[in-house]
Amino acid sequence: MSMHLFNLDGKVAVVTGASRGLGRGFAKALAEAGALTICMARSVPDLEVTAAQIREAGGKAEVWQVDVASPSEIQTAFDHIVERYGRLDILVNNAGTEIPKEVFDVTEQDFDTIMGTNLRGLYFAAQAAARHMVRQGSGKIINLGSLASQIGLAGATVYSASKGGVLQFTRALAVELARKNVQVNAIGPGYFRTDMTEPFFQDPEHREWIENRIPMGRIGTPEDLAGTVVFLASPASDYVTGQIIYVDGGWLAS
Predict the structure, then answer these.
(1) Could you tell me if residue 251 is inside a domain?
(2) What total of structural domains would you count in the chain?
(3) Residue 85 among the catalytic residues
């Protein structure tokens, strides 16, 4: 198979939550494949670090400060991106958050914070991107699911509900946009060590539980997701839509 299928030269990509963790890894992978990558999040200093790493490696990156919990900010940002660069080809809907609590301790604010980013923000970012992709006749939307899109996780009831919603939204949007030549898929990472998951790894008992459940015997790294995001962003996946690809070291298979 020709490697040109994975080439993203000339494409414009947006990665939300690109200031750190998996989002930074996604942004770097898309830029390495040739895309102009718009790094989007609330923290400009952290976004600048991501962009600097991309540029140092020879890629192209820009920084846009946006709070994905605000639909109006999202729509305005995407409109300006298309006005400036002439197109929008790829959205990696990565921004997410978690507040680990048992169900009886969850407050309304906890619920709204998690859902506001993981599902509501993701939904309206996809909507804003899709408006432009439909007009140009092509596009790739890649949502971030989780193991919790498939299984329940104790102490993460709201997070699990949000990620289950991401999977169903991905499927429904894929069907709705299929005839518009916009593919919508999701990535379901297993346990990766990021700022959000670090508390799990600081707890020896929890860390042991995680590591013992991974058949491959190691925690994932952002580099383990690079191939999947480039595949879903590239022409190689033009006939793939409504799917979630789990990148979990074999967790769900065991």
Answers:
(1) no
(2) 1
(3) no
Give the pLDDT mean for 62-77.
95
Set 123, 159, 191, 246: catalytic member: 159
Amino acid at the residue 213: R
- 115-125: b or e for each residue (b if 16 or more CB lie within 10 Å)? bbbbbbbbbbb
* Domain interval for residue 181: 3-246
Position 253 in a domain: no
Residue that the structure tokens 């190691």 belong to: 218
pTM of the predicted model as reported, rounded to 2 decimal places: 0.95
- Residue 252 falls inside a structural domain: no
More confidently predicted of 202 and 54: 54
| Residue 151 included in any domain | yes
User: Torsion-angle region of residue 231: left (phi > 0), alpha (psi -120 to 50) or beta?
Assistant: alpha
Q: pLDDT at residue 1 above 60? A: no
Count of CA atoms in the C-beta half-sphere (13 A) of 209: 9
The domain that holds 99 is classified in CATH as 3.40.50.720
Helices 122-136 and 157-177 sit at what angle, rounded to 10 degrees?
A: 10
The pLDDT value given to residue 18: 97
